[in-house]
Specification:
The chain is α/β, with parallel strands linked by helices and 333 residues long. It has helices spanning 10-21, 32-41, 83-91, 101-104, 115-121, 166-177, 188-199, 202-208, 214-234, 241-248, 262-269, 280-290, 295-310, 319-332; strands at 2-6, 25-29, 43-47, 50-54, 58-59, 72-76, 106-109, 126-133, 137-140, 143-145, 149-150, 153-159, 180-181, 252-253.
Length: 333
């Protein structure tokens, strides 16, 4: 199999670099200064084992590859807000022997939240969900770090519509050879809904900074309570905290120190967008569909988007001010 990493940022570059190191055929897809740095100097990937430079093929789109191969596997690792453009571009690419990528090739969705699978299923016949536990940092073009040990990360995989098959098991075997835990599960979306609960704090990190504080934890707990109420009203199941802890315990230990999450990193790089519409916004959507008030998640989504659109530096808002906005929204709900 050849792995095409569509969006070689923190997650995509880590997975691509580790797969390449394990002897797999890998292509990185990137754009702008990051693509230029990868092509010119290689991928500088630091893991718990140290820094290595991976010199892998780099493209900006499918046209540079020509016809795709029947054994290609598409790993969609762009942020959800960029998923439609990527899915359309790669879905229309022709595959040797006839047909398009959307008709013939598997696409794995490695985003936070649960929307990318829905977007992919509208376009692709073979869609897989991946619940990603892989803390990684990408702030400089061509440079990524992922320092967990003994495994670089844990990636739960399964068919987006439920169940497993021989293809996903073969992909999981390659990921395990590359230093990841890759459990194949019948219910991958239950894992992704569970992870979404923690990702509701990404907006808090982005706007108030990544340093832990009791007031931030309290605000996140309020957002999670709203989410669980919305899940209950919608009949959505999710794996327990105990199951998640058991899956990670002793496998993905992180070094000490403050590290900004994906939304914080997006603001730090000045990308102009964050995933809040598909994290906190997912809870807002469920709440509106099922009659559950979600003022805290509404506030967090709105605040993070303002930071992204206006180019504000991450962490520029005080936790007290963000909490006050949530309190005002709750009073109006």
């Amino acid at each position: 199999m050849r792995y095409i990493i569509i969006g070689a940022g923190a997650i995509g570059a880590t997975i691509g670099g580790r797969l390449g190191e394990a002897g797999q055929d890998v292509v990185l897809v990137a754009r702008g200064a990051h693509a230029q740095a990868l092509a010119a100097d290689g991928l500088r990937l630091t893991t718990a084992a140290g820094e290595r430079v991976h010199r892998l093929p780099v493209v900006t789109g499918p046209a540079e590859l020509g016809e795709l191969r029947p054994d290609d596997v598409l790993l969609l690792t762009v942020k959800t807000q960029d998923a439609i453009a990527a899915l359309d571009a790669w879905g229309d690419a022709e595959v040797a022997g006839g047909g398009t990528a959307a008709q013939r090739l598997p696409v794995l969705c490695l985003q936070n939240g649960v929307e990318s699978e829905r977007l992919a299923l509208r376009r692709f016949a073979r869609v897989y969900g991946v619940c990603v536990w892989l803390p990684a940092t990408f702030l400089e073009p061509g440079v990524v770090s992922a320092l967990c040990a003994p495994l670089t990360g844990i990636l739960h995989l399964g068919r987006a519509t439920g169940g497993t098959d021989t293809r996903v098991r073969a992909i999981a075997a390659d990921l395990e050879k590359a230093g990841f835990g890759a459990p194949v599960v019948e219910d991958v979306m239950r894992w992704k809904y569970a992870k979404l609960l923690g990702n509701l704090g990404n907006a808090i990190q982005a706007t108030t900074g990544p340093e832990p504080a009791p007031a931030k934890a309290a605000l996140l707990l309020r957002a999670i309570r709203e989410a669980k109420a919305a899940y209950g009203a919608a009949g959505i199941g999710y794996v327990s905290e105990a199951e998640q802890s058991a899956a990670r315990e002793g496998k993905v230990d992180q070094p000490a120190g403050v590290r900004g999450g994906s939304s914080w990193q997006s603001l730090a790089r000045g990308t102009g967008s964050v995933e809040a519409d598909y994290l906190n916004g997912e809870i807002s959507l469920l709440g509106r569909l099922h009659g559950v008030a979600t003022p805290v998640n509404d506030t967090l989504r709105h605040a993070a988007n303002i930071f992204a659109r206006e180019g504000l530096p991450p962490g520029a808002m005080s936790t007290e001010d963000l909490t006050a906005l949530a309190d005002e929204a709750a009073a109006r709900a």
